[in-house]
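Good morning,

Both structures are done.
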Amino acid sequence: MFCPKCGSPLPVGAAFCPECGARINAGTGTAGSRTVRNRASRPRDYSLTSLAQWFTLQGRISRQEFWLRLIVILCGSFITGIVLSIAFVLTMICIAGSSDGNKLMIFLGILCGLVLLASLASIVALWVCWITTAVRRLHDLNLSGWWYVAICIGGTVMDAVLFGLASIGAWIAVGCIEGNAGANRFGDAPTGGN
C-alpha cells in the first residue's frame, strides 16, 4: 500500500505515512497506486515543509535531504542565536531600567523576556531536528540511531585531541557515504537522490 498524498510505501497497518505524516485510512490502496504511477514524473519533495518529518525518528533520508536539512538547521540556529543575544541584552537593560518602577520598562522587559523564552524554545526545537535528521541519515546507512550517541561520545573524546575536528569529520562522512540502494531494516530507500 502507498500513501495517497506523497506516494511513499507504507508499512503494514500504518495509521500515518512515515514520509509526509498524512493520516492513512483502510481504503487508500487504490489511490496510493495511482500516486506511485505519477510519482516518477514529478520532482522529489524533500519534505522540508512537512513539520512532522522534522520530528520523527522513523524512516530514512538521502544524502541530498540530509545536507538540505543541515543548511536549514544551521541558518535557523544562526538567526535564533542573534535574536537570543539581542533579547537577552534588551531584557537586562529593561530589568535595570525598571528598578525605579517605570511601567514602560517593565512592559518591555516582559516582552523581551518572552522573546528570550521563545528563542530558547527554538534552539531546543532545532536541536531535536538535528537529532532526528542525523538518526534518519544513519538509518539510510543501515545503522541504528544509537550510533548518534556513539559518534557524539567518541567525537567528544577525540575532540580533546583533534581540536573539534573528529565530530565534524564524522558527520561529513555520514552525509557523504551513499546509503543502501534497496530496502533495509529501517524502510525502503528514499526516492530522488541517494
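Second structure follows.
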Amino acid sequence: EYVSEDDLKIEIHRKINSIEDEESFNKIKSELEDRFGKLDEDLIIYMYEELFEKEIRTLNIKNINQTKNFIAITLSKELTKNIDGELLFLDVISLTRKFRFSMRNDELTITLDTVGLDKHFIYYLIDMLDILKRAIKLN
C-alpha cells in the first residue's frame, strides 16, 4: 500500500527479508521510515514476523504449533537444560498471564494463548524470545 511500483515493492520485501536480528530490524525500520514516513501496524508486524522466524532458527527451536487460539513453542532438550527456568518463568509471565509452560520428555513448551491479547501476539513472542536469550546466557 505504500507504493504502487512493483520494483519498489520487491525492494521493500527484500529489505524486510534481510532482517537477521534486532539491530538489522531497527536499521531497516528507520530506513523505511525515513523513506516513507510513519509505517503502518501491518508492515511493522510483518517485519517482526521476519525477525521472529530468524531468531527461532538461531535459537534452534524444535517445534512451533500455531492454531487460531494459541502458539506453542517447544524447545529442544539441549536448550531446555541450559535455561534458568525461574528467570524465564517470572519474566515471561510479567509480559502477560496468557503464557503457559509445560514439560514433556525433558523439553519445555511455552504456549501463548492468543485470544484476548491487548496487542498482536508477535509483540509478546519477540519479547519472550529476548527473555529466553537472557535466560540461556545466564547459565
